[in-house]
Fold this protein.
Amino acid sequence: MHILITGGAGFIGSNLTKRLVDEGHTVTVIDNLLRGNKIDSSTFEKIKFIKGDVRDFDTVLNASKGCDIVVHFAAILGVDIVADNPVDTMDTEVIGTRNVILASQINNIKKIMYASTSGIYGHSAIGNALTEEVLVDPRTSYAMAKRYNEIYLASHHEEKGIDAIAVRFFNVYGHNQDNRMVVPRFFEQATKGEALTVFGTGKQTRDFTYIDDTVEACVRLLNTKGFHIVNIANEHEWCIDDVAKEIVEITGSSSETSFIDAPKKRYDYEVERRVGSSDKLFELTGYRPNTSLSEGLKKIYKINYNK
């Protein structure tokens, strides 16, 4: 197939780009390179790359000509960056997604895959594994924009017939991720012998999903028909404090853990528990993410720090 990936030079996008190229697909990538280009050089030589912004309709329209699928992963990421730039965050989400949908209709594209987030759940079902049927509770500009786009895609499927799938990512980690996110930040601090900074008590939990599992799920979901919202989750929760300890052990670091108060701007992003269910993913594809956090962290250390 010919697949357009917006945000394809980012963390998840670059890993998916490599996988699709390796499988023989034709891939076009749009990315503004705000956070650099994470696509490896051998893969980059095999794609068509367009430096541009998804908020520019002509860029999206021209890039999507002749494509079968649009994978729309372009977004502004990172709690601190999003909290400091709510307007840009929402503009990128809302205008970018509108452009993707309109361009897909004009160019007769069969399907859109959209990167949503587990942040949509907010404080919902705090003690249970989150399913797609749970009443969502978006509290941030980022989560609200993601939920809006889910509804927008569902509406276009119902009215215009375009197939679409919104994937709700649960704390993806792995190769090519930068230190805006907790796992690479901990690795960077541990390998430098610095204190690992943990917001709050460290007892808050998250469901960490390894990048290879995430990409595998996305590739399988490209074959689905209709409209779906699907969690991509590992289905296990880890305390942030335990993640820090695990990374210290893997790296052989002497670093201590430093507990600090979360800045006020992070309040709406902080929840005590979050773990997802991948039952629907399994029903649609026969696949569940299966890389344990310990295994995934060891892979990251081997790839990035213990060459």
About this structure: The chain has two domains: 2-173+209-234+276-285, 182-205+237-274+293-304. The longest helix spans residues 86-106.
